[in-house]
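Hello again,

I reread your note about wanting to compare the complex against the isolated chains. To keep things tidy I'm splitting this into two emails, and this first one only covers the full assembly. Below are the input lines as submitted, including protein chains and any nucleic acid or small-molecule components. They are followed by the predicted structure of everything together. The single-chain runs will come separately.
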Amino acid sequence: MEPLIQISAIGAPLRLANVNTDQLFPARFIKKPRAVGYAQYLFHDIRRTDAGDINPNFPLNDPKFETAQILFTGANFGSGSSREGAVYALYDFGFRAVFAPSFGEIFAANCLKNGVLTARLDQEEIQSIQEALDLAQEPRVSVDIYHERITLPAGQVVTFSLDPFQKHCLVNGLNEIDLSLQFNDEITTFEENHRKTYPWTVL
Amino acid sequence: MPSTLFDKIWTTHVVTDRGDESLLYVDRVLLQENSFHAFDKIRREGRAVRNPSQAFGFSDHYVPTRNRELGIDGIRDPEIRNMVELITSDTATYGIELFGLGHDYQGILHVVGPEFGITQPGLVIAGADSHTSTHGALGAYAFGIGSSEVAHVLATQTLWRSKPKTLRVTISGERKAGVSSKDLILFLIRTIGSGGAVGYAVEYNGDTIDELSVEARMTVCNMSIEAGARAGLIAPDQKVFDYMQGKPMAPTGSQWGQALKYWQTLRTEPGSVFNREVQIEASEIAPQVTWGTNPEMVADVTGSVPNPDMERDLERKTRMTRALEYMGLHANQMIQSIPLDRVFIGSCTNSRIEDLRIAAQVMKGQTCRIPTMIVPGSEQVKRAAESEGLHEIFQPAGAEWLAPGCSMCVGINGDMLASGERAASTSNRNFEGRQGQGGRTHLVSPAMAAAASITGQFENISSYAEARSWNL
Ligand code: SF4
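Full-complex prediction:
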């Protein structure tokens, strides 16, 4: 995984709450191999109007935001299913960071495994950042993961806080399976004891 | 200090700690066709599967509900067929048991897990599907994970988890006639919101829960994820022990006695402290119907669609307005005046034998007014239903009696709503496009869905004279 230390990129506002994984990545595309590029499926149905045309009011359809890599959005982002395709789609589109008041938990865990930052900001902070992005001619934002701060287009700084382990994994681009296998001996010892105490559980 | 059911399971599974997180031993991992990304990762990184006999594969999301006698050749769409082939070859490569097409126990992972005895009290179960919370009904800590974490479990038999907070939901009192466990959980989500249990493991208790059958409890735990919960759990009791007996993978011989003794300790001790408590009075709950595009958008069947203009929270108001627009409904419209196009009875929420018995009770001797699909959750459920003659109630009524799988719950096998079509569905998600692009979903219980099939609209089944005698 690529280490994620600093991102300087376009930030996009997405004023929706409870965006679920079916909206991020509709179920009918799950069967596509990742090699086809999942970016085309990101927000597939909500980027379009009910008639199927590109919805000009959807922020990522706005030329100003179409190359965005940082998303500022509403509460409970990524709720719903465990499908990791939702994260692949965000990643393939270019997103490396999402800020919201809260996240679906499985989604946030999936983001971490794929080198996408999820961090919480208050609803008010999100709103004022979204306004700043709308106002800015070039809505470029920089996110310093190591120092846990965001610099907005006009230079204001907003701080956020990360779980130390989440930060450690992101900034070092660590593969979690390798990390966990460092505990292989502990796992084996645990398993032997577990088998002795609950013999019907370890097969 | 007295400990909770959840604490007991958690403590016995911690391998080691790291800051806020613990490395938890995972007893069982459940896979489905969409796990192909996990197998790709294992392959790409050149890893071995640590305990293949503790992993189980299921063909459920993509399998067809028609032409099953043709086996894999019954799948025309090459992409869908490829998914069913992938899980077959991936599980074979790594020596993992597959409940695939043609298997006597084929079916939805959350139906087959308990049915085959893979699910047991006290286990930590991770599944490649968010509704893995279902298995908590037997007193397991069960939760959904994404592909990367599936790969992690396959390689290490463990997962990193921060300890969730605990929420106890106590449901007490007698239910009204026609009110089933689906109504209880919809009412709870309506009460606490779809983000209401984020960060919590929820333990359900109270005399209403005790009363429920093991299968009805699965419906409650199944939809815990729709309130954002990390898991839903119910302490195992005699009903669960009876349920476990004789299941293919249940412990046998001296291990049965040993297991039973352990399972009996899996209870929250009196005086245990939860981070949060919610009390629900069951007698106040009417049959529930969702009107919107999120499982918290729920109304009583006797009620009406809310009016967004009455909502003070601007954000909620926007969401409500959008939901009404998508659903093709208007403010204050009576729930019972909504004309339906179709009915879907199925999904891991409500496709067990009991659900089908309930539907049959309601449909007996009646005729479906609108197209109705009945999709049993597993091959075993299908056989049980047929041996009881339930299909001889469904088919003459005009309902389609189909082969087991996820089917229209998520629409990825091709069973879908057409754009603008409106369905009463016993599944768990009413998200935009969930059952087909532009499709409109109203979540209800099996009894409500069966009644809707007969009249083409939602009925207040609580007022049916015969509802008292239904075994819900
Ligand atoms: S029935 Fe629906 S919710 Fe259940 S596992 Fe299948 S797709 Fe998921």
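For quick reference: The CA atoms of residues 129 and 159 of chain B lie 15 Å apart.

B.
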